[in-house]
Amino acid sequence: MNSSSFQHSRSSSGWLLSMGTVILLSAASALLALTLLSGASLISSISQLNTLAKGSDLLQMHTGEIEFENLEAFASDHPEIESWQISPFLNLASDEVVLNGQNLAASNQDHGVVMQNEAFDFLLDDNGQKPEVKPGEIYLPSSYKGLYQLEPGLPITLAGQPFVLEGFVQDVQMNSMMSSSKRFLVSPEDYEKLKPDGEVEWLIEYQLKEGGDPNALVQAYEQAGLPANGPMITGPLITLINAISDGTTVLVLLLISVVVLLIALICVHFILSIQLTQDRKEIGLMKALGISRRQVRMRFFKKYVFFSLMAFVIGIFAALACSSTMLRQLQELYGKGLQVQFSLFWAVIGALIPEVIILCSLWISLKKMDRLSALQALFENGRPKSRLQQTLLVDLLCGCCAFLVCVPLNLYTTLEDPGFVRYMGIGQSQIRIDLRQNSKTDSTLADQFSFLQTQLQNDPEVSRFCLLETRRMNSVTKDGSTVSLLVEQGDHSVFPVQYAKGHAPENDQEIALSSLNAQALGLDVGSTLQIDWNGEKRTMEVCGIYADVTNGGKTAKTRAEDSSLPIIWSVGYVTLNPDVSVKDWMSRYQSEGYDVIDLQDYIQSTYTQTLSQLQLALRMAMILSAIVLFVVLFLFMRLLVERSRYELSLQKAFGLSSRHLILSEFKPALLTVGLGLGAGILTGDFGGQLICGQILAGLGASGFKFTINWPFNGIVFLILFGLGVIALLLAFQPITVIQPQECCHGRE
Q: How far apart are CA 574 and CA 579, in angstroms?
C-alpha cells in the first residue's frame, strides 16, 4: 500500500489542482465578459435611441407665456443651431391619472400628455418606430411597464377620459426614473379634449450642428434673457441620467470582476507552486537530459493553456446565459442596442482578457525555473510556502469574498435609506409638497406659498416644516462673465442637506453652492460671489458646498429673499408628530389640491431601476462569493493536507490520533478564516465607501457615506464563516485515512 498510497495522493492532488484551476479561470472570464457585455449594451442602447429619436442638445422647460419672436430671433442669430422646436407638455394632476385601476396620486413624477413631435425628440415604440396613435389610444413610458405591471389592452383614465393602452414608448429625454417628468403619447384629437383639464408647460428644444457646444448655447440662452421658468438640461446630462441607474450595476460588476481576477491570480499561482514542488525531480531529470528551458516551461504551460481554453468557452456561455436577465430592462427602456454578433464580440473580449492576464503572469513565473539547475532540482527539496504565507493567502481569499458581498450590499442599503435624500440636495423629512402655477386659478405661486405657510403653522399635526422658493438669478464670475443660478431661498437649517464642506446659510449675506456649481465657478468655502439682487449687485460669501443630483446638480441655497424675480417653483418639507397617520395627512392635503408625496416613496420610485439592478448584482455577488470561498478554501486546504501527508503519517506513527491532528490544523485555519472575513467586511464598508464616493462625487453627490446595516453585515459574516467551517471539515477529513506506516516507505 505504501507507494500506492502516494500514487493515490498524487492522482487526487492532480485532479484537485485541475478542477480548482478551471473553476477560478471560468469565474474570472464569465464575470468580465458579463461586465463588458452589459456596459457595451448600455452605451449602445442609449446611443442608438438618441440617434433614432433625434434627441435634443438643449431642453428648457418653461411655464408661462412665451414670445415666439424672441426665440426665433435667437435661433437665427446662432448659426450653430441645426434645428429647434417648441413642444407643448400638458401637465395633469397625478390624482387624475389612473393606470388599470391604480391612481397615481402618490407619485413623485410630473405626468404630461404630449403629441408626437414633427422635427426631432421622437417617442419611439419597441421597434424603434414612431407609433401612429389613433383617438382613444395611449402610449405610456416603457419604465411604467414593470413599475405598474401594465400590458397593452388595459384601461387608462386621464382626467376622467377613458383610453386603451396600445403600447409603450422609449423617451430619450425622460426614460429614467431619475427624470422627474414622464410623457404620455396621445393623438392630437385627444390632446385637445384634455387641454381644459391640464396646465401647458412648454418644452423649448434645440439641436446643434456637429461639433456644437451645448454649454456655450446654455450661456448664450441665459444671457439673452429668454423664457426660463423651469429646469434646463443638456443632451450630455440627459445621457448621463439615463446611464446612471444601469451604469451603477455595471460599475459594481466591474469591481466584482477585478476582485475575482485577483483571487484567481493568487490561487492559480499557489496551485502552480504546488505542482512545481511535486514535479521538482521530473524537472531536474528533464534538464539533466538536455531538454531546453523553453521546452521545460512549455511542458507545464501547455496544460494551463488548455485549462484557459476550457474556462474561456465556459465563461462566454455563462456570461451570455446571465446577460438575458440583466439586459431585459435595458431593451425595454432603450431598445435592442447591440446586435447578436457584437454581443458575442464583447463577450469574447471580456472572457479573453482574464485568460491572457493569467497566462502571461504564469509564463513569467515559469521563467523563474530557468535559474534552477538540474542538480538542485534532483537533490534539494523544494521549499514549500511558510505557515505565515499560507495564512496570508487564506486571509486574502476570505477578505476578497467578503468584500465582494459588502460593496453592493452597502450601496443597496444606502440607496434604500430615507437619509439618502440628503445627497440629492433634499432635506430629510417625511413629506414633500410641490406648489405649481395654475392658469385655471387666479392665485400666484406667491399667494399659494403664503396660504400654505399659514395652513402648516396652524396645523397641530405638523411637527416641523419649511417652505422654499426657487428663483433664477444671475451671478458674475471671476472673469466677468454672467452665469445663471437656480437659487433656493428659505430656512435651510430645518431640514439640512449633506454638506461636504461648510454649513447651511445662516444669514442673508451667505450662499451655499452645489458641488458641481462650485467646481464650475472655481469657488470654495470662504470665497465671495456677486449676485444680481433686486436690480443691484450683492456680494455674498460661500458658506457651504453640498451634495445635489437634482436639476442637473447645479443649484444654490440662501436664506435671503428676492421678491423682484418670479418664482420658478416652490416646495415644502414636512415632518409630522409621531402619532399622526402620514397616509391620512397626505390624503387630506391632496384633496385640497396640493401635490404631496412621501419622500421614502420618492426615493424608491426614483431609484427603482437602480435598486432592481443592484438586487441582481447583490444576489450574483453573494452566490459567487459563497461558491468561490467554499470551493477555493476546500481545494486550498485539501492540497495542504496532500502536501503534508508524509508529516501527518509520521505524527500518527508517534501515536497522535486523527482527531488530534484534525483539531491542530482546524483551529488555526478557522481563526484565519474569521480574521480574513472580518477584514474583508471592514474593507468593503470603508474602502468600498471611498470607491463609490469618488464615482458619485462626479455626479454631484459629494461627501457620500455608506449607510451600513451592521446586522446584515453580521449575517454575511455568519453565512460565509459557516461555509468556511464546512469547507475546512471536508478538506481535513482525508487525515483520518492516512496510515502511520506510510512514512516508512519514502516520499516519491
A: 15
What is the C-alpha separation between 219 and 216, in angstroms, rounded? 5
The string of pLDDT tens digits covering residues 144-154 is 888 888 899 99
Q: How far apart are CA 622 and CA 715, in angstroms?
A: 12
pTM to 2 decimal places: 0.75
Reported as half-sphere exposure (CB side, CA atoms, 13 A), residue 678 has a value of 6
Compute the residue count for the chain.
748
* Closest C-alpha among 221, 212, 241 to residue 61: 221
Give the DSSP letter of residue 579: T
Contact 185, 131 (CB under 8 A): yes
Give the per-residue pLDDT at 193.
Answer: 92
Q: Determine the Cα–Cα distance for residues 277 and 380; give it in Å rounded to an integer.
A: 11
CA distances from 449 to 124, 467, 493, 553, 569 (A): 39, 8, 19, 25, 10
Instruction: Give 493-537 as a 3 state SS string.
Output: CCCCCCEEEECCCCCCCEEEEEHHHHHHHCCCCCCEEEEEECCEE
Find all residues with CB under 8 Å of 26, minimum gap 6, and list them.
310, 311, 314, 315, 318
Say how far apart CA 480 and CA 568 lie, in whole Å.
26
The chain-wide mean pLDDT, for the chain, equals 81
Cα 209 from Cα 78, distance rounded (Å): 11
